[in-house]
Amino acid sequence: MRGLRLGLALALSCVASGAARAEISDNVVRIGVLNDISGIFQDTNGMGSVEAARMAAEDFNGGGRGIKVEIVYADHQNKADVGSAIVRKWLDVDGVDAVVDVPNSAVGLTINSLLRDSRMTFLASSTASSDLTGKACSPNTIQWVNDAWATGNSTAAAMMARGGKEWYFITVNFALGQGIEAEATNYIEKHGGKVLGSAKHPLNTPDFASLLLQAQNSKAKVIGLANAGGDTVNAVKQAAEFGLQQSGQTMVAFLLFINDVHGMGLKVGQGLQLFEAFYWDMDENTRAFAKRFAARPGVNGKMPSGNQAGVYASTLAYLNAVAATGSDHAKDAVPEMKKFKGKDKLFGDVTIRQDGRVIHPMYLFEVKKPEESKYQYDYYKLVSTIPADQAFRPLADGGCSLVK
């Protein structure tokens, strides 16, 4: 009997030990960075996002529990079917536990639907669709950095406060641009402004001449660029040739990053208004992170974009939740992440809401004139700060089924 009891106890001990080990699937937490490595978002995301995720894993350093972390990555090519196929393989075959980054709203919404109620967490740090925390909200998804509601409403509010009542939009004919234009238009019209017109273009457009001419002829006070990446850069460069800003019109870019400004140069970008969640030169913490990032292999001295900073912050937050719960399953990690309310070293005062939206301050910047810049990547001057509780859509207005 004694031998039987000893054997039973040993068997139960092994079962309990096995269950504990199984909480970290395969004894490794795998995070997949999914983004545009070869297209128009390669500078703002690309391999820089991969390095940001690796930095987060290094800083996590096992979470005090010896937890192993592995970073993998893939190029979704800005195609929803390609992104979906990659993530399905990560889920079914490769044992990936979380997907991070995902610029391109069409790809992000597809991934969001695919991962709903699966074991995988979706860290949508670069997906701009506000539907992710609205009608399409998922218990598996956390959305960091920015979204179309914040971009559209807060940018419109800041510009209208400075006298920008009449608008004309140049918009990418894609979920991202359509969402931003719709949100901004709603705000503008509700607050006594007017939208005089809108010109649509496909993703990755090389020639904006006819669209800019329409914008110029509209006489609108503000020309809103509801696009991103190379499209925004091309539009700004060609607008400089047209002399739009010199003629009294103000250009505002809803989604522009430090990498884009670096690519176009201050001579072209000077005076441009833009809306950002992160700027590398804000304080000691952001500068320290940026210096480390710039020294990474393959980064070649570039400063991090807001999206790349978001990959770091969301990856580290997820890993901290895994350490706290002892599980890399979304049903455990995501609720743990939503408990967080405090200071993030890159994004300031942060709260993660029940709808999955991470709220933090947002900033309206103006691109400096060449003579105002004192060192490389010294490109922005702060125009206004939008507090966290005003920068994002109110929790009750999103229609998220997770909100009680």
Which short descriptors sum up this protein?
Rossmann fold; 5-stranded parallel sheet; alpha/beta; 15 strands; 404 residues; 42% helix; disordered N terminus
Describe what you observe in this structure.
This is ABC transporter permease. Belongs to the leucine-binding protein family. Pfam families: Peripla_BP_6 (PF13458). It comes from Bradyrhizobium retamae. There is one protein chain. The strands form three sheets. This protein has a seven-stranded mixed beta sheet with strand order 7-6-8-9-10-14-15, with helices on both faces. The longest helix has 21 residues, at 2-22. It contains 14 helices and 15 strands. The chain has two domains: 25-146 and 283-360, Rossmann fold (3-Layer(aba) Sandwich), CATH 3.40.50; 149-276 and 362-386, Response regulator (Rossmann fold, 3-Layer(aba) Sandwich), CATH 3.40.50.2300. By secondary structure, the chain is α/β, with parallel strands linked by helices.
